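Re: folding output
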Amino acid sequence: MKDQITQIFRESIEAKRDFLEKNCSGLVAAVQVIIEAFRTGGKVLLFGNGGSAADAQHLAAEFVNRYKLDRPALPAIALTTDSSTITSIANDVNFDEVFVKQIRALGKTGDIAIAISTSGNSVNVLRAVECSRQMGLRTIGLTGGDGGELGSLVDHSLCVSATNNTGRIQEAHILIGHAMCEMVEETLYGCARE
């Protein structure tokens, strides 16, 4: 069992190391887009399914409340948390539209849509990105493996390409999200790294 656990940790470390080597500049560009949106009165809308839905909620909370620094709240909404809205759209329209309808209601030009999908092929995520682009939102995709359709659809693709393992991709996604939150706070509120 110890060998298996060690292998799990090694795979996670390698996925993160590989992401950083291939995507550091892309991550900087994505962070800059988020900073620009916050500076100009925009907000961040985050969405995904399953574990990616949990990541969307987690990162929205970091922006709204705080990451490391006590500071003013930043406007971020996880489109995965309102069960009444999600179930009514899924029941009355189609599950593929659960994020699209919310983006149409809440999004505006200058906002950021952060789409999270480990495969990059979740239909409801892809449709939401297409809607976001049509409405003038900038799009960031967190994905894995070959990036799926999402990788080529977003303005900023952040793909954990070293693995197709969902768990390892999700572990990297939350690190990417935390790096985003930390850099946004440091830039907007001049905090020093702890």
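--- second protein (sequence, then structure) ---
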Amino acid sequence: MSAEPARRPPPEDESSPASGRASDQGRIDHALHLAALREHSLLSLSELSQNLSASPDLFHMADLVLYNLMGRFGTAKAALWLLSSGDRTAVLIRAHGISQSLARATGAACEATLLRDAAVDLQPVPKSLIGEVFGTDAGILAERTAFEVMAVVTARETPIGLVALGPRIGGLDYASLEMSSLQASCSVLGTAIQNLNLHARMAGNNLELRRANEELKELARLKSELLSNVSHELRTPLTIIIGYLELLVDPLMSREREREIMPIVVAEARKLNDMVGRLLTLSASSQGKLVLQMETGDIGNSIRLFCEERRPLINSYLREFTWSIEPGLPPVRFDRTRFMQVVEALVENATKFTPQGTLLRVVVRQVPDGARTAVAIEVTDSGPGIAPERLPHVFESFQQGDGSATRTIGGMGIGLSYSRQLVEAMGGRIEVRSELGRGTTFTISLAGAGTGAPASGAGTPSR
């Protein structure tokens, strides 16, 4: 008896119970995957928001958001541009994975679109639409830089910048959920930049108020000195002169007595003239020559506090500002208030006369000075530099590096010429070196006030 052939089970169609269970499981797996993506995006957004709110530096903030996005989406290329508050040009803040020149050109090609009112409503733009949305040149440059998506950064319904991301590792496309996550990140960044700019404006206003207060204090001091001189020095000779003149007009005054009085009147008049001359000298000194209040102290800590206070304001001009203070600095002899005005003058010089995107850096370090140790304070910028023929004259009579008209720096009117006078009056020296196209460095040197023992609370590097 032959064996009956084994029967294969009939194929399951989509209407069968087993097929339905597989389809349901697929939908569940897909829903779980989407839920995981949403959770990951929310966690990344929360982390990004916390980090941005704690950062006082625009360029550090740019690194935070780009590294966050690159890690979240798995890409090795990213860039951030911001529109300047003045001429509204796209300034490259950070670029990772692409050349600086290509990144700057891409930002410039997108400027016109960012300046339109409709840009605030733009959703993240994929690579296929970059040329259509931002223009043909932007599309060509996006191909060269391999950007896959661009998203507008907005604050208070105003476009303020642009973020671009490269291809994802593994060739995955940017899904709609990830596009929404990118847009949310740009909104978080826009809010953080707006808050940073508000803080910078507050710092700027406080600085102006402080300068005005210093000027009012100086005026009050000069007024007090003037009144004191008038009261104590001018009143006495005037009283003597008036008293003797009243005697001279007396008709009963003898000729012999008149001859005795006249030399006294002349002497007091000459004394009065000398005092008026001294007052004029005082007035002249108030316009330039100041009495220094010297002290021995830690200059590194003063500069660190200055840099921390000024960084938001300098960042608001789209200049990157960093500093480094060597630990264990020796104490120096200096007038703290006047010296910080010199440092402020040099930093403001670098801020005013360099293009956006420039790096400004303050370095404080020990240097050898014969048998003792000196402290060097360097203020460096990566700007256009000073022409060689102008370099020897930068400290002369407030001249600018470009040879234009008189300039004053800061609310107290401190120019480079007077800065040198102040530094030299403190026993130091100030020098400048520059190279066209590579930046300028001003260096102030102050001799250590002792054997080189470190001052208490010596400064430490900022980062």
